[in-house]
Design goal:
Elements: H1 7-14, E1 33-36, H2 61-67, E2 73-76, E3 79-80, E4 84-86, E5 96-100, E6 109-113, E7 122-125, E8 128-133, E9 136-139, E10 146-149, E11 152-157, E12 160-162, E13 168-172, E14 177-182, E15 185-186, E16 193-197, E17 205-207, E18 210-213, E19 219-222, E20 228-230, E21 233-236, E22 244-247, E23 254-256, E24 259-262, H3 267-271, E25 277-279, E26 288-290, E27 293-296, E28 303-305, E29 308-310, H4 313-320, E30 327-330, E31 392-397, E32 401-403, E33 406-415, E34 422-428, E35 436-438, E36 442-447, E37 451-461, E38 466-468, E39 473-478, E40 488-491, E41 499-503, E42 513-519, E43 527-530, E44 534-538, E45 543-553, E46 558-567, E47 570-581, E48 598-602, E49 614-624, E50 630-636, E51 647-649, E52 654-662, E53 668-673, E54 679-689, E55 701-712, E56 730-735, E57 746-754, E58 760-764, E59 777-779, E60 785-792, E61 797-802, E62 808-818, E63 832-842, E64 858-863, E65 876-884, E66 890-896, E67 907-909, E68 914-922, E69 928-933, E70 939-948
Amino acid sequence: MLPRSIAALVGVVGLLGAGLALTPSTARADGSTLYVNNLSTSNCSDSAADAGSQTQPYCSLQTAVDAAQPGDTVMVVRGNYGQLDVKTSGTASAPVTITTSTNTHQLLAQIVTPQSGSGPGLTLDHVHDVAVHGFFIGTNAKAPVVAVAGSNNVTLDGDRFQGPYSTALVGIDGQSSTATLSRDEMDPEPGEDAVDIASGASGTVITGSEFYYGKKIPVNAAGAPGTVVVGNTFTDDGGCNTAISLTGASSGSTIENNAFFLGAPGGCARYGTSTPVVVSSGSTSGTTYDYNVIASESGGPLYSWGGQTYSTAADLQAATGQGKHERYVAVAADATGVNIGPLIDSADADAPDELSTDFNRKPRVDDPLVADSGTGPGYYDRGATEYQDPYQVVPAVSVSKGPAPLSETITANETNPWKTQITGYTFNFGDGSAPVVSATPSVTHTYTAIGSYPVTVTATTAAGATVAGSRKTYVDVAAEAPLVPALSLSQAYPYSSLTVQADASKTTDDWSIADYSVDYGDGTSAADLGTSGFGAHTYPKPGTYTATLTVKDDGGNTSTTTQQVTVGSAFVPFGPTRILDTRNGTGAAQAKVGPGAVLRLKIAGVKGIPSTGITAVTLNLTGVNASTGTVITAYPDGSTRPTASNLNLVPGQVTPNLITVPVAADGYVDLYNHSGSVDLVGDVEGYYSTTAAVTLGGAGLVQTTGPTRVLDTRNGTGTDTVKGRVGPGGLVTFTLPNGNYANASAVLLNVTETDATASSWVGLEPSSGGVPTSSVLDFTAGQTSADLVVAPVSSGQVQLYNRYGSVDLIADLEGYVVSDVSTSPSAVGSPYFPISPTRVLDTRNGTGVAQGTLGAKSKLNVKVAGSGGIPAGVKAVLVNLTGVKPTTGTWLSAYADGSALPSASNLNLAAGAVRANLALVPVGSDGSIDIYNNSGSVNVVADIEGYYTG
């Protein structure tokens, strides 16, 4: 498909010499060839005595054409020559030929109406016996690209036409006759015809040309008798629209050997359907229609003949006698290509004006693999292009790389379905040595110097034709160096978190690599990576594995290396979606959970959560109206209840906490209530999976950032839209700072509310607007509380909603979900390993540290790596941090040991309160985290719910 605007092409070529002064001249060169070249280096002139000679060509194409006489050839070198109005005629035996020096469709010479101009690019103005060959012809005006006016015996051959605003590419008026368009490339805009033949024009020939069109009609003859449309290819870029229309009195015409490719993929349904060929009742007399191929996905009528439509060629033939040799190819709507078999060796070679060479000036050839079914010699192809001998040759080398002196065996690898007889091969080694001609397809050559050398091969056929190799192959001669294998294993996208991408491409050697293989260390057979060094592998379960790479080179050397990799669960942001509410019977019985009772909560397969592959669920668990002080413990269904707690409740309060709990193999988790009775509400904010595909905007690995304040409505941090409290039904939108997390699918935020004027809750603004259906933080008036929240990210922004009253909101970024490594190449995230809640710190009884409260402005160092089954080398932990009865209002902050105290908090406590909050905390290089207390003294409890590593 050609570009839709020709302005850029014209402008570039214009630098080569357009805009030179056009001086009328009567001078003309001796002989029958006039040369035109407006390049600045051409020494061109329109007025010199020898203007038009090779040594002093014309600058102006118009001047050269005006000076031409019958029998002259105007030879044009590349450049933009503006508009051309041809008023010079030849004779039948001595035509005027205006041509370029190319026989291809590169079309470097241009005849184009400038953007500020008007009218056609080329006008054939009441002339005869004129041929125009090899040009790009265009107009930027609302006019035909080419206007044939009152002319006869004119030919447009091998030209290319385009006009973004034109009325038609070629307009032939009713006073013209015997105009021929051959081997031309037509690219009409959707709103224009390619060739308009006016009433009264006769004997127009369109042959061997290619049309790319949409909506309008490529060949539109209205009352034009004797129109010949033979051996063309019509490709509808849009749908299944009419390609040829003969209306009025266009009798005595011929439509043969054409190929129509319509509508694939899916274009007919999107862009409309009409009958490909229309021959009106006034045009049927003496008109022949046959030997065409229609490839289409449309189920509509294929033919309209004499006012009647016919669905098939058989129907057309039965009713009219036409189309005896028609062929139809049904194309699926999702097809990516069309079978060209029906085109080959099946055309009518005796059709009027059928060409002996095709659109590319290639000869007609007989395909030995296809039975001849055409007329005449029987092997002409339908359409504009003759299918040529598919013989190909490519040089192959025995060793692509090695140290000097390097002895190579070079072989001509051939594709030869036609069994073409090859008599010899010419090898060029690319190192300056003489080419070698061989009767056999293999030779040897020794390279003596370090360097990279392109090897080529040319084959010679028995007919004396030469076929150049389709590509070069390079031989690299390297300095001596040892074989050093290298292996990296990383998350493979877009696959599950258990799938890794192996990359051995950093291996170094002075020889080319013969083979890479990887034993992934999970008991499966070693995988052969061939010579690419790349491969993907899915581990059977989470864990740490040692993979072994074995490399063999073409010098006979072998070496190995190992690489450790950890695979675990990926996080899938989800919801928030309410799956539990004992107040109304959602997910469990409509009743409070009593003392010592266990509520079994189904996770897998509930409300869009997959039924398999779920390893843990992230749930905002809220306790409502407890009858007495109590704790809630969450753990995998059927396992031993841990001593750790997830939620601490006091009577009459509404208290939330985000928990991440492993999901048992049966898809359930258990929720245990220690004392009294309480209603429980659970909103899923995400889950961890070993089967979900890690892909952009969805599942991903979690990257820990350490707490970073991104919102504080008290001072306007993070947002310009809200400074001060968020009102009832209010929405605050804040933009994440520049960085990798701006491209995250979700972020983990510690959201804190303070100075609320009424009891309320915070939700995440749903994409549809309105009131969120689930809360992420519930609070009472005057309370300061926090909750970890999984917030979806849209265009780098997060939205929070306040239901009642007014409240200040604070958000501290603790991590983000890396859902596509291409957006965060320096931070690919870590897989997750859930564990049943494990207590690593309790200052009340000396667990993890010496017994005793944590004082003001003091910190505790808590060893987490190596404790409770948590391995060494973990990057971060999910810690349920609980503060117990501080002597004054305070806040706690958890962070990596060895790093500075952050400006953000994780847990806010009133004097005498017992409250918990989940925190995503980076782990220091020594395997520890620090917990800091700001004021008074407080007991601190820490329970690990899972860890990130790898």
